[in-house]
Amino acid sequence: MPRRALPLGATLVLLATASAAAHEMRPAYLEIRQTSPGRGALVWRTPAPVALELPAGLRTLDDAVVAEPGGLRVERRDLDLGASGFDGRRIAFPGLEAAGIDVIVRIVRTDGTATTAVVHPGRPWIEIAAARSRLATLGDFVVQGIRHILTGPDHLLFVFGLVFLVRTPWRLAKTITGFTLAHSLTLAIATIGGVRVPAPPLEAAIALSILFLGPEIVRARRGETSFTIRNPWVVAFAFGLLHGFGFASGLAVVGLPHADIPPALLGFNGGVEIGQLAFVAVVLIAGRAVRALGVAWPRFAEAIPAYAVGSLGAFWLIERVAAMVGS
Hints:
By secondary structure, the protein is an alpha+beta fold.
């Protein structure tokens, strides 16, 4: 990236990381399984304070069974679906916008057909369609992958640091893709194989990887070299392994059925790659725009991005380790 674009880049990353809290990796999950004509069983799992608002005509036959294992609220109910069933009806999720998470909705009918969709905070409701194509479901998970990246300040900060560490666009693209490949690998292993890693240590390790990147950017700016500078894809791959386990643990916890996992993984990882490359493109274009303006920045401004990356990484590491020790 051009030297004159560095201060603008630092501003972008500071805006992107305005919230120091780690983003919630776990989506909420709603399943309504039709057990017989006019009857159904509901399971609602949410890691955040999000309510479930059923449409008029869907009546709870008994009190909800509520459990809260590991910070996850779980409700189970038997439903009277009424004469018209649930097709064409709207289910709302009050509080979803404030929580900033997605909801995976799965509807299973008595004939064995199932519909899976993803509800986003910007549209906190869903109308149950009579049928839904696999392509539409795949598209939902692509959008979820893009949102997961663009609303994750720690991940954006890491990618931002790679922009300053890797000087050529093509090598940078390959480095970013290395992250996605690692992310895909651990998502598949953890989600399909049932491997789970506790979230607090993962979040601390992610913060440590960001802190590690700061000094490497300083070395690269000074013209020095290191294993990371020569092989940035290795660091990106390692970070991808950590991040993949984090989100996979979320998918495993909500109980997404195995039949839905392959399209979820494919779409989600496609969205992750699209989101990363789009973010990198915006940073590079912004850098070129600032260069075209011919603004003369002071020399010390060149070091701002490296110190921004390292300092925020250190802050998150201390914050997350303190939360682990204090819990």
